[in-house]
From TrEMBL, chain A:
Organism for this UniProt entry: Caldanaerobacter subterraneus
InterPro entries: ABC_transporter_permease, MetI-like, MetI-like_sf
Protein name in UniProt: Sugar ABC transporter permease
Transmembrane residue ranges: 30-50, 93-114, 126-147, 180-201, 237-263, 283-303
Similarity section: Belongs to the binding-protein-dependent transport system permease family.
UniProtKB/TrEMBL annotation, chain B:
GO molecular function, one term: maltose binding
Pfam families documented for this protein: SBP_bac_8 (PF13416)
A Gene Ontology biological process term: maltodextrin transmembrane transport
Presence of keyword Signal: yes
Entry keywords, A to Z: Signal, Sugar transport, Transport
GO cellular component, one term: ATP-binding cassette (ABC) transporter complex, substrate-binding subunit-containing
Superkingdom field: Bacteria
Signal peptide: 1-21
Transmembrane segments: none
Keyword hit for Transport: yes
Name of the protein described by the UniProt record: ABC-type sugar transport system, periplasmic component
Organism name: Thermoanaerobacter siderophilus SR4
């Protein structure tokens, strides 16, 4: 009896040991494949992030080898009491509120349209996708020139010729027209990506469902709202989260087009952070802002996961 | 089995590359140290110093084709690797270089950055180096002082500049004038005569100090006391408020063009398109645009207002970075750049105003009518408050003026608030 239980134990231990050995062997085998990636990740992603959090609590000195004074939460308090920080925060949130639904609605419509054309599908796809892969810098400059003030600007010129306006609009000199330009650019550049993801989802819907709907007498509008929209719900959530995170990263177009002008009323968080760090040399304060941005994004993502339940559809 | 072999192979190759990379870089550093030891024993192995600058096209050509060859001929042991940097984003680039220990040896830097980088600890003081006192004696005082921070000089002046008034010849004739207005009142009278659709009398390039200060100061405004310690009582004095109010009135009467708030046409475009009677700019206006601009415009001193004819001092200093490996050679190059040959070449061929008084007063340079105008304007020009916090002061002033032009604040409100903030910046120098 006793010897039997000992024996059993022993075999269990053996099993455990061999299990570890197995794991170890697996790790050893995959290490060459992920090792380099792991090293790069720690050097270029993990380490900078940890250092950034540390910097946020100091009055950071950029000179190598110089001491940086620890200031606790002073940088964070300064941000919360700064009018300009809240302006930038407001504009970042507004950018998300306007451009995320804009990109999703237009992207979905375009995807459905392309899914239904018979000839030239790829041509349309490429045309709509080109803005996504174009450089932010280039398109920002182009938009800046398109929306130049005075009657020489292309948009003003067109609107004047069409008699839609009687005086040229100073697009970039007013808070809301300048924000409008930034939003339009954001939507225009994002449609292609939304379209591609939605197209993939649309192709996953089995044809039988469309056929059944047709037999039941559904018109195209009903099909769109009753078949397509519910079936691509998981994709919609995926796109939503990605776009919201992306919206918090709005930066280059603002820096290139307005740089916050007029009077910081079009500034966004990243541009505000960039200028504090690289124009004013306030690296500690800028790091604190980046930590705040990180926390907000994390909170939004967790909240979304809570609020929107992922439903997987089984056809 | 074969899987295992492959993974082991991959691991081995990876390990090998790392080791080899390590080896090659090691041997590389060894070689360079060998070189420098050869240098010490007087064998002619040239030292290369790196020089960053923001010279314009014309100036860059003079530097590479005439100045550097002349220097390398005089000092065969020193090679100069000159890199032209774009001004946009340059401050950020220098900051990253400082943080990453990748600075050049010498840089020609905007005068307003020197105290800021000196405070950061990126620059080496040069006032203890041999030959500095001779340079200080020969240099114009204003530009020299832009290198001063906390008891030391952190560079030497390379070139200086200011802005003068530039008038459109066609519009000047239409206003019934044969020569540029001498006083601000005359200018306003002329502006009223030519005022019309797409026509303005005065074009100010922006609300930042570099753009608006000449008008604000000539009209009697002040920024700080003479010792740069206090703005309250100066920036918001009745004279300053009146000066700003006058500018606002002119803007509302459409005598000042839309470019002050970033609208179109900009100053150069408006000068070419006969939209603006008067703009202001530095010597590069003529060196970049060439003879065509000389034909169609008339340069003159800033018109006199209640405060006089006061412009802004600009320019570039040569600084020595702390991380340089060849301070001796770099300093030789800096001294050379202050000497007669390069200063004269840049003055005569590119219109850069020399900081070396001997060169500025020599007849070849002072004979040029445009350069002599700039030199004359410089005598009364305002050196922007030398302070490591100048960047923030600049932003504060610019936003205060912008608020007023956009009708978001009265001159008194905006200047009161700005003066209070600037006081703080000046105290935290």
């Amino acid at each position: 009896m006793l010897s039997q239980s000992i024996l059993e134990n022993k075999s269990k231990n053996n099993k455990k040991n061999s299990h570890f050995k197995q794991k170890f062997k697996e790790w050893f085998e995959v290490l060459p494949f992920i090792g380099l990636g792991l090293v790069l990740l720690s050097v270029f992603v993990v380490y900078p992030q940890i250092k950034n959090i540390y910097m946020a609590f100091t009055n950071y000195n950029i000179m190598p080898g110089q001491p940086s004074e620890f200031v606790g939460f002073a940088n964070f308090m300064r941000a919360f009491h700064s009018e300009k920080f809240w302006l930038a925060f407001r504009n970042t949130v507004l950018y998300g509120v306007v451009t995320v639904p804009g990109q999703m609605a237009i992207g979905l419509i375009v995807a459905v349209l392309i899914n239904n054309v018979i000839k030239g599908k790829n041509l349309y796809k490429v045309m709509i996708y080109i803005p996504v892969i174009t450089s932010w810098i280039v398109v920002s400059l182009i938009f800046k020139y398109l929306f130049t003030d005075g009657k020489e600007g292309l948009i003003n010129y067109a609107l004047l010729k069409l008699h839609l306006i009687s005086n040229p609009i100073s697009w970039l000199q007013n808070t809301w027209t300048a924000n409008f330009v930034i939003w339009v650019l954001g939507i225009w550049k994002g449609i292609g990506w939304v379209m591609v993801i939605y197209l993939a989802a649309l192709q996953g819907i089995p044809n039988e469902l469309y056929e059944a709907a047709e037999v039941d007498g559904a018109n195209p509008v009903q099909t769109f709202f009753k078949i397509i929209i519910p079936l691509i719900k998981p994709t919609t959530f995926f796109i939503l989260i990605n776009l919201i995170i992306g919206a918090f990263g709005v930066f280059i177009q603002v820096m290139m087009i307005t740089n916050g002008a007029p009077l910081g009323t079009t500034d966004v968080l990243l541009n505000y952070m960039y200028n504090r760090a690289f124009s004013d040399f306030e690296f500690g304060y800028a790091s604190a802002i980046s930590v705040i941005i990180g926390i907000v994004i994390m909170a939004i993502t967790l909240l979304q996961k809570r609020l929107l339940k992922y439903d997987e559809f089984n056809y | 089995m074969s899987k295992k072999v492959i993974s082991v192979l991959v691991a081995a190759i990876l390990a090998l590359t790392f080791v080899m990379a390590g080896c090659s870089s090691n041997s590389g550093t060894k070689k360079t140290t060998d070189n420098s030891s050869v240098n010490d024993t007087q064998k002619v192995e040239p030292v290369t110093i790196e020089f960053w600058h923001t010279f314009s096209d014309t100036e860059d050509k003079i530097l590479n084709e005439q100045i550097i060859p002349d220097f390398e001929q005089k000092y065969p042991n020193i090679k100069v690797k000159a890199t032209r940097m774009p001004y946009d984003g340059l401050k950020q680039q220098v900051i990253s270089a400082v943080a990453g220990n990748a600075t050049p040896d010498v840089m020609r830097m905007d005068i307003i950055w020197v105290p800021e980088f000196a405070k950061l600890g990126a620059l080496q003081p040069v006032d203890n180096l041999e030959g500095f006192d001779a340079i200080k004696e020969k240099a114009f005082k204003g530009p020299m002082e832009t290198n001063y921070f906390n008891g030391h000089y952190y560079g030497i002046p390379q070139d200086t500049n200011t802005k003068i008034a530039i008038y459109n010849k066609t519009l000047l004739q239409q206003a019934g004038l044969t020569e540029p207005p001498k006083t601000f009142d005359e200018l306003v009278a002329a502006a009223e005569k030519i005022k019309g659709k797409d026509r303005w009398g005065i074009a100010i390039s922006g609300t930042g100090p570099w753009g608006i200060a000449p008008y604000f100061l000539s009209l009697g405004g002040k920024v700080t006391d003479d010792k740069y310690t206090k703005a309250t009582g100066y920036l918001n004095s009745p004279e300053s408020v009146a000066a700003l109010q006058k500018l606002i009135d002119l803007y509302n009467e459409k005598l000042i063009g839309p470019c002050i708030l970033g609208g179109q046409p900009d100053t150069w475009g408006g000068m070419k398109g006969n939209n603006y009677l008067m703009i202001d700019d530095g010597p590069w206006f003529y060196s970049i645009q060439g003879d065509a601009a000389k034909q169609s415009t008339v340069p003159a001193l800033f018109p006199q207002g209640p405060g006089g004819s006061i412009s802004v001092v600009g320019g570039e200093d040569l600084v020595l970075f702390k991380t340089t490996k060849h301070p001796k050679e770099a300093w030789i190059f800096m001294q050379y750049m202050f000497s007669e040959t390069p200063q004269k070449l840049l003055a005569q061929q590119a219109g850069l105003i020399p900081t070396n008084m001997d060169v500025a007063n020599s007849s070849d340079v002072s004979g040029d009518p445009i350069i002599s105008l700039y030199v004359q304007q410089l005598k009364t020009a305002w050196p922007r408050t030398p302070s490591p916090n100048w960047g923030k002061i600049d932003e504060t002033l610019g936003q205060a003026f912008e608020k007023v032009f956009r009708g978001k604040a009265t001159p008194q409100q905006a200047l009161d608030e700005a003066a209070k903030q600037i006081d703080e910046f000046l105290q935290n120098n």
